[in-house]
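Re-run with default settings, no changes from the original entry. Doing this only to confirm the output is reproducible before filing.
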Amino acid sequence: MQSPFGRRRPEQRHKKDDGIIRRTIILSSANSRRVRVAGAIVTLTVVAAAGWWWRSRPTVRREAGLNVLLITIDTLRADAVGAYGRAGAPTPWIDRLAEGGVRFTHAYAHNVVTLPSHANILTGRLL
């Protein structure tokens, strides 16, 4: 059966099941080949876009002499550490690290649970 635009229309067969007429469209081999080609094009486009995204993401800048040591301790108050003013605190290694590095006196948690707080600290995003 020809359409007015010169393309062949898919064959249609009518089935009668339980009083309901159902149409079944049988695709020709040319139509199924078009579907496969279109699927291949979409797949290649998605793979190319994923490759472009992977190569264009920002890289971490590594500079000599920059070292970061992040110490996070769950349920430790500042007044229990010698670096924050407690005399005779049992934290000599943390106190030595604090003397030679940067020590923060104010910290605000984005979350009250440890795991999401670590995700916030390490990604720099409010999750």
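The chain is about 35% helix and 10% strand. The mean pLDDT is 77.
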